[in-house]
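Run log, item B.
One chain of 634 residues. Sequence copied directly from the ordering sheet:
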Amino acid sequence: MRNIICLLLAAAVSPAQQAIDNYLSTLAESAFRARSEVVLKLTRAEAEKRREEIRAKILAQIGGYPSTKSPLNARITGAFQRNGYRVENVIYESLPRFYVTANLYLPQGPGPFPALIGVAGHSNNGKASATYQHVWISMAKRGYVVLAIDPPGQGERLETLDKFTNIPRAGAGTSEHTHNGMQLLLTGAHIARYESWDGVRAFDYLASRKEVDAKRIAVAGNSGGGTQAAYLSVLDPRLAAIVSSCYMTSWKELWYKPGPQDAEQVFPGFLKDHLDFPDFAFAAAPRPFMMTTAIRDFFPIEGARRTRDEIRSFFRLFDVEAKAGYFEFDDTHGWSKPRREAAYRFFDQWLKGTGTDGAEPELTTEPEQLLYAAPRGQVLATMEGETTQSINAREAMAMYPKRTAAAKGVTRGLIEARLKLDANQPRFHESTLDPQANPKAPVIVALNATKADTAEMRAAGHAVLSIQFPSSDPTRAGYTSQYQTASRAFLVGRTLLGLQVADVLKAIDGIADPARIRLYGRGNAAVVALHAAALSPKVSSVALEAMPLSYLAITQAKLHRGLVEIIVPGILKDYDLPDLAAAIAPRPVYLTDTRDPAGIPLLEAPVRAAYPKSHVQYRPEGWTFAKVYEAWLR
């Protein structure tokens, strides 16, 4: 079956990209085997140790949490009464001026009540989705306080909101998570860091309410909400019970089809560190943890069943196998009524100690507008608040003067460590060296050069070794093949940029006469060329056309496009692109039509400011390669 899947994947991508995916799959399979060897032999003492290791590893992978908790500054912005419960519209600050919009459902009668943190899946309207309202209202009617929250990028918290159209420019939900998630990775942060911290502070808010029994606070969500629930089971040990719907599977199945999903679900080094879906529940033990699944979900049911069995074995070590809940239903992805009712039964059993059928009553959901906590239903439309991008941009600026290169310069070891270079990797991209007409002319290694430009290089007498990398299409949203390849690389502790740089270095080493090599790169391939030139003393000069200005600039931009293949987790802790150019000096570096993060050509001044020792030039429309690069070709 897996061979068939691999063939289907191969048909959708280039041979070189398929070769990279096969290489990454080999690393993943090795990680799966190594983890299984450990997990299958766990003793209780080892299981207790593993719980703590899981939390430490995941916390590190998402960039850690703040050392202190800032004031919540919670306020109620509206309220209404319904039969059997009351709803309060609430805003709190999980970080200073990072506003979380929420709805608090309060049952009638004497408290304190058990409570639920309701985390929304990838619905554009977040917590106000009619499907999710069924859960919040049903739980309130069953005697639970519910705090339903919007994640960043959904509901009332669209982070790339166009104030004129009220439309998110990067798209809502998964699109915005992945867009902002790429920027966050550059500082070593992660979109899941912000989502889960919102949940930690949701617990704090519930615990502050007199209506809530703080010892009986649970979390539940579906899809993206199931993701958040699983993370919180690891990152907030105060939770009394967890239900994750339509998320839990196994990476051994998910890896091949449908592959990595949005940025919140891809932790750098997750598989390398021998983690998998069951570890979310492992960290929760002996607290009750339930998986609810769909047989026809795109999250593979075979993986869910594999994970179910692992969780039961792990919980058995603590004599609490009954707390490893599992429910599956023969339908498709979503928080359908059977899965909702399974969650009600589970919470009644473990938070109330009662056995119920979990039947969901007939109910009426509310108009989305009635549930607005922010004026006009969007935080950014009326409140001068923070976003994940703005917080990360400020952290990047604070980090920048402290980066390793600022104090010690750029070394080969620093670059290799950050790119996760593997000297033993195979070659992925085919290249042919065409002999030069002029034997004295340098060889040009051309990365993503156009056919016309390559022809002009040859016409000038140069031998050309041409390599074409697949490029992200900036007009496409969703999980492109390049995004999934980059994500697979992150999961196994590699980077797509590092794989490409290593390929270029091998190509350079294969050139018979290494004394006269020049390197050219266009677009994102210019970033590959810059790294390769910094690592190889054989490169006498480098020309970089249409290259993004810097990683720092990417963190500062409200919008960026088509940059996934050059993203390197945590790179700004060590160095930036201008640091590489400075390290290459006195070898010449030519910068042509340098771009901002959205792909727009920049004026000369900011480029010269960032690259004071480089040759900065333009390529006006219609100008030939030979005319623009006359000095470089000589």
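Observations after the first pass:
- The radius of gyration is 26 Å.
- The chain has two domains: 60-393, 403-633.
Flagged for discussion on Thursday.
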